[in-house]
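Handout, section 3.2

Students often ask what a structure token actually looks like in practice. Rather than define it abstractly, here is a full record for Xrn1 helical domain-containing protein. The first block is the sequence as you would receive it.
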Amino acid sequence: EDGARGTKRKFDQNESEQQPQQQKEEEEEEEEPVDEVRLWEDGFKDRYYESKFDVVATNVEFRYAVAKQYVKGLCWVLQYYYQGCASWNWYFPYHYAPFASDFVNISGLSTKFEKGTKPFKPLEQLMGVFPAASSSHIPEPWAVLMSDPKSTIIDFYPEDFKIDLNGKKFAWQGVALLPFVDEKRLFKALKPFYDKLTEAEKRRNSLGCDRLYVGPANEGYKFLKGLYSNEVNGKDGAPVLIDGMQGTAFPAEDAVSIGGMLISPVFGLEPICDNSVITVKYKDPQFADDYIFPAKKLPNAKDPPRVLKGAGAG
């Protein structure tokens, strides 16, 4: 899992009200950032690895190691979209990519990933991506770990960190050089505080079913409504095929009844009266771990006509 995510510096309210022309002049007066790599000059590759990875130019084996991890990342992405998540534990362990010319000696690269891994639970995920400035969105017992100097994971949440412009002009375009989160250390630090979560926070921190919210105009509305009137036996789940979407639907214990009222979970907002939406728990079709989804066109698929687009067209 990738490391924590830094927040961007926010302008003071008074600064944001300055005249646009003045801001434009100030931006124009800013000096161009120093480009240590200079891709247009000989020796750019040596300078790149020295500057970005802090390794000597003669260490070509390091370059190949980075390239192998990058290629493995490409395999992870392709498998994610065509077969499902290869591993929830794998991540690219560098802030920068290699050059394509360093994709050598990769024929022996293992594309095997650790099996049986699980994603972070929701609140654990927030602890892995939020900066300390966003700790108000974290349960209070956990939020302390983001700011307490004695916290064993305080290094995950630096207040100051380098932003490498990496050839860009503005900070928001740069690379935030934040530490990678060590999940073992994170879970160890959180372990003593799980019991201090409220019941509501424990529910929010659980991995549950997906939900479908279906309105009266949907073709599956009547069938799903039957899950709550015993017209459809949904105790063990009812198979559904709606608008080409296949899966299994279950009654949701906390569903608001038809005609019922939903109290807004957000303070200050009005409740929703006379509810007409059906809520069900939903599970995707299940397949064996070794099942291979065919990555090919459907038999009767027709390619759209080829069109030559102008430069820069999407």
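Discussion prompt for tutorial groups: The chain has nine helices and six strands. How would you have guessed this from the sequence alone?
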